[in-house]
Amino acid sequence: MTTSARKASRAPAVLVLEDGRTFRGRAYGAVGETLGEAVFSTGMTGYQETLTDPSYHRQVVVMTAPHIGNTGVNDEDPESKRIWVAGYVVRDPARVPSNWRSVRTLDEELTAQGVVGISGVDTRALTRHLRERGAMRVGVFSGDAIADEAAMLARVKAAPEMTGADLSAEVATAEAYTVPAIGTRRFTVAAVDLGIKGMTPRRMAERGIEVHVLPATATIEDVYAVEPDGVFFSNGPGDPATADHPVALMRGVLERSTPLFGICFGNQILGRALGFGTYKLKYGHRGINQPVQDRLTGKVEVTAHNHGFAVDAPLDGPGDTPYGRAEVSHVCLNDGVVEGLRLLDRPAFSVQYHPEAAAGPHDAAYLFDRFVSLMEGQRA
Predict the structure, then answer these.
(1) Among the options 49, 79, 108, 356, which is catalytic?
(2) What is the DSSP string of 165-231?
(3) What are phi and psi of 239, to 5 degrees?
(4) How would you class 41 by CB atoms within 10 Å of its CB: exposed for 0-12, middle for 13-18, buried for 19 or more?
(5) What is the 3-state secondary structure (H, E, C) of 72-119?
(6) Residues near 230 by beta carbon (within 8 Å), at least 6 away in sequence
(7) CB 210 within 8 A of CB 232
(8) DSSP bridge pairs for 24
C-alpha cells in the first residue's frame, strides 16, 4: 500500500442517507465527497466486475459480503475501461491481497480512479435499512469534505434521483466498433450499446458471431447498415421510462422481424416496445445468486442481476401486443418479478438478468445459444 493510500485509509468518513440515518467509518479509496443512489449487492465475489459494470453508473454500492479486496485487482477481469460506481461501501477491506493474478490492491485502484468509498461500516445494518426503507440517495464524505450533519444531508437531498434519469448515452461507446467472431464467422449481430459489459460480445464471438457494437444513439439505418442476422440490446443504467429512442429503435427491428435478444435494460426496452409499463423496485436485485425460473422448461437457474427497475407484464399467460402474442418467460422466485419476455409470433426474447455472467454463475449461458437458434431458424 502506498503512503497516500495508507493516509486515506486512516481518514474519517461518514455515510449519510437521505432519510437522515448516518454511518461512520474510515475512508476507502479516494478521499472527498460522492453522491448517488445507495444500493446493495449480495455477491460474495466478482467485485471487479461489479465496479466496472456501466449499469452501476451514479450508484453507491454497498457490499453485503464482509470481506472485500482479498484477491486484489488484475487487468483481465474489468467489464469496461473504468470503474462506474459512484461510491463504494465495505465492512472489512483486505489488508493484504492474495492471488496470483493480483497486480495492485483494490484500495489503490479506487484511489487511482477517484472513487470515494468508506470502510468499517456495519453493512448488515445498512442493508437491512435499505431493504426496509428502499434504495435512496446517499452521500459519502471523508477527510475535509466532512461537515455538520445538516449540511451533508442537504447535499444528499439536492442530488438527482434515479427515477427519471436518462443515463445510457453517458456510458455507451461514442464510436462503433467490431468484436470479430472466434473461428468461422456464422452470423453478424448489431449490438446496441446502452451500457454493455465486455463479456457479452465475447460470449457471442465464442459462438461464431461477429458483433458490431453501436452507440446508444444509433439509428435504424445504422443497425441495418451492418446487414445483421440478429440485433442485440444491452444492459445499462437509468430509468427505462426515459429511453424513448431505444424503444423506437427496437420497434423498428420488431417490424422487420429480425431475430432480437435483449438483456437487463434491453428487457425493459422490449417491455416498453410491446406496450407494457415499467416501475422502480423497492431495493432492486443485485448480486450473483438470484433464483430465476425458466417457465418454458421449468428449470430453476441461479443468475447474476443488476437492476432497480422491472417490467410490469401479466404473469397469467400470453397477451396480445402490436407485434403478436407475448408472454413472461422467466420469473424471480424470491419476489415474482418479471425476469424475461418472449414473443410467440416473432423471433424476439429478452431477460432481465445477465447471461454473460461475469463473474458467474453460468446457468443462463444457454440463452446465447437460444439467440443463435433464432438466427438459424430465420436463415432457414
Answers:
(1) 356
(2) ---HHHHS-SS-EEEPPSSS--EEEEEE-SS--THHHHHHHTTTEEEEEE-TT--HHHHHHT--SEE
(3) -90, 120
(4) buried
(5) CECCCCCCCCCCCECEEECCEECCCCCCCCCCECHHHHHHHCCCEEEE
(6) 187, 188, 189, 190, 209, 258, 259, 260, 261, 371, 374, 375, 378
(7) no
(8) 14
Inter-residue contact 348 to 329 (CB < 8 Å): no
| Integer Cα distance of 132 and 18 in angstroms | 14
| 362 classed as catalytic | no
Q: Exactly one of 57, 129, 330, 354 is catalytic; name it.
A: 354
Q: Which of 293, 240, 248 is nearest to 266 (CA)?
A: 240
Which amino acid type is present at position 70?
A: N
Catalytic residue (one of 18, 33, 264, 332): 264
> What's the Rg (C-alpha) of the chain?
21
101 grid coordinates: 493474478
Active site residue 332: no
Q: Taking the C-alpha atoms of 68, 71, 77 and 79 in order, what is their torsion angle to the nearest 10 degrees?
A: 10
Band of residue 1 on the pLDDT scale cut at 50, 70, 90:
very low
Distance from C-alpha of 320 to C-alpha of 257, rounded to nearest angstrom: 16
Query: pLDDT tens-digit profile of 203-234?
Result: 999 999 999 999 999 999 999 999 999 999 99
Q: Please say if 301 is a catalytic residue.
A: no
Q: Alpha carbon of 53 to those of 50, 102, 330, 354: distances in Å?
A: 5, 19, 23, 11
β-pairing, 260-263 vs 348-351, is parallel
CA distances from 129 to 70, 134, 154, 166, 230 (A): 26, 8, 20, 27, 43
> Which pLDDT score is estimated for 2?
42
- For 376, list phi and psi in degrees, rounded to 5: -65, -45
Q: How far apart are CA 230 and CA 223, in angstroms?
A: 10
Reported as a single tens digit per residue, the pLDDT across 8-22 is 457 999 999 999 999
Amino acid at 173: T
Q: Is the pLDDT of residue 6 over 60?
A: no
pLDDT value for 44:
86
**Other Cβ atoms within 10 Å of 198 Cβ, number:** 17
